[in-house]
Amino acid sequence: MFDGLYFEYPKVFTFIVIFIACDAYCKMRTRAIYFPHAAALTHETHALATLLKILKWMGISLLIVAMMSPVTDDAVHLAPATEHKVVFVVDAKSLTSFDVKGQITEMVRTTENSTFALVGIEERPHLISNLTASKKAFLYPLETLELLPSKSGDCKQALSLSTALLNESGIIIFMADKSLCAIDKEVIKSLSEKHITLYSLGEVEKVGGVSALHSYKVVDTHDLENALKSIRKEAGLNDVSMPYTFKTYYYIYPLFLAFLIFLTVVFLRNRRGLL
How buried is 35 (Cβ within 10 angstroms: 0-12 exposed, 13-18 middle, 19+ buried)? Predict the structure, then answer.
């Protein structure tokens, strides 16, 4: 519990000198009628006086320890505040032309607080991996993925399936052969209204004759890597968990013990009629 305990203000310990000086030179004076042999009348014992002195200095010491603020540091990692939903859309040509599996794997493994899904296009679009926060559950079907070439890939249907997964907001990274796709302005507008951002990666920079809002020309693996880095930066997918030092303060324990000890001192002095 107290591993790594240290004092935040260790110099406060010098206050003990002030208490010692006050105890030595600032004696308490009270007005009283003098009675000879008062000590014998009150039956004050040496043991009680020693006990009161010990309790007094214990209380003072604990009070100083509390003022020194004992504390421990615990390193924690805070997840990014924003959760991202990302859908990858791929076809056979993109899988065989570039290192798509490797680039997607690297992107998923280094991104925190996000959910991922994978949509494949063959004769018709189909869901390969549903939205999941488990990187292992997403990467396993990706590593074993093989798609048949599509002769008439329906991009509209692929985007509709991706939109249904994201619901109202998210990111679609489209890595399919645009020459077999037909996406009109209405599809782009529909995605924009649902706060879904479309990133188009491929050999051409236009999707069905419509300039995509976020389009990257990719002709080799190097272009794909740079495009995905740009997407991560633009979409905020670089927000990995941040280290944070959480401080736990323990001053309440010595402070509470000092309070109990001072109450005990007052009780004993009142009981013996010393106040």
Answer: exposed
d(CA 244, CA 163): 36
The answer to whether residue 42 sits within a structural domain is yes
Residues 125/154, Cβ–Cβ less than 8 Å: yes
At 20-70, the pLDDT tens digits run 888 888 776 656 555 555 555 555 556 777 888 889 899 999 999 999 999
DSSP E strands, 79-212: 84-91, 114-121, 125-132, 170-175, 196-202, 206-207, 210-211
Give residue 126's domain range. 84-235
Q: Which two tokens stand for residue 152?
A: 């008439």
Interatomic CA distance for residues 104 and 128, integer angstroms: 14
Whether 243 is covered by a domain: the verdict is: no
Q: What is the pTM of this model?
A: 0.55
SS3 185: helix
Q: Which residues contact 92 (CB under 8 A, 6 or more apart)?
A: 121, 122, 147, 148, 149, 150
Domains: count for the chain: 2
Cα–Cα distance between 62 and 158 in angstroms, integer? Answer: 69
Is the same domain home to 24 and 132? no
Distance of CA 216 to the CA centre of its chain: 32
For 3-18, b/e burial (b = at least 16 CB within 10 A) is eeeeeeeeeeeeeeee
* 98 class by beta-carbon count within 10 Å (0-12 exposed, 13-18 middle, 19+ buried): buried
Q: Are residues 34 and 169 in the same domain?
A: no
Residue 115 contacts residue 85 (beta carbons within 8 Å): yes
